[in-house]
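Morning. Coffee machine broken again, so started the prediction first thing and wrote up yesterday's gels while waiting. Chain of 318 residues, entered below exactly as on the submission form.
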Amino acid sequence: MSEEKVTDLSPEQNSDELASTTGSLLHFSSEKIKVIKNTVAKGATDDELEMFMHLAERYQLDPFAKEIWFVKRPKKVKDAQGNWDYKRLPSGEIDYEGVDPIIMTSRDGYVKVAQSDEDFEELNSFEIRSKDKFHFNPMTKEIQHEFGADRGQITGAWAVCKRKGREPAIIVVDFQEYKNAAGKNPVWDNYPSSMIRKVAEVIVLKRQFNISGLVTQEEMPMREVIEYDDPNIKRLESNHGNKNKALDIDDEWKRLSIRVKELGSKLGLGKEQMESIALFELEIDGNPKNWSLNDMKRTVEYLEGKVDEHVGDDEQNA
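Came back before lunch.
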């Protein structure tokens, strides 16, 4: 897989210039870079954003399609009222200083990286159960796996990835190790065989295609797996000390959400058009479920302005 050439940055350059590359199929304009920093890379410094955009373009993963995302998870501290909250800046925004970033993708992101390489041949995997006849020789790299209808409990999984010009990469993973790390996770509880196979696939793809700088949901403990769960866009903390105030905020959010739908319908805007307005006009998250109360208010004001423009145009044409 060829790497793209990344233009060196001088200290004077700002975040709008961070995606300057040559030879890349996936390219982000300065406008989209700004949107990414305000949405899916919230809290990123210019250096961290440069790293994020470099990995996105190097592996051809699209942040807007949720193929790659940036996570910063600050620790909570007690506020003056004794409630747990994030450390805040004077502006009210969350203070991300000193918080290490995590750049994440998914198993599907790794598969996309592998399949985009012309030397990719195949990826195979399966879960291992206690009554299966399973044998793996790490010296000869031979796997023998047979099973019948009665298979027993899941004990692990294996994965093999073949690439032209290289020896097949083989990995065997222990189920309980990753299940324990996942903690109380309904996905692991309901789809254990699928999840442990994904873990094996992720590791074997990483090894075979030398993927670095990214971690996946399947590799991370449950407490660290957060996709677009930025505290700045949470509209309501369920364990907030001031419950009455929190409920008032939630009621207002719901009321404004209904208003957004009414205005969108009046303007004839579909889902994709609304998402485009959010990302490029208002520079907020494209998913309304992630909007803060302030995001919702801004959207209502924007749409009401558009409705007024349409009314004015109709009166002039009458």
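The mean pLDDT is 77. Going to sketch it on the whiteboard this afternoon.
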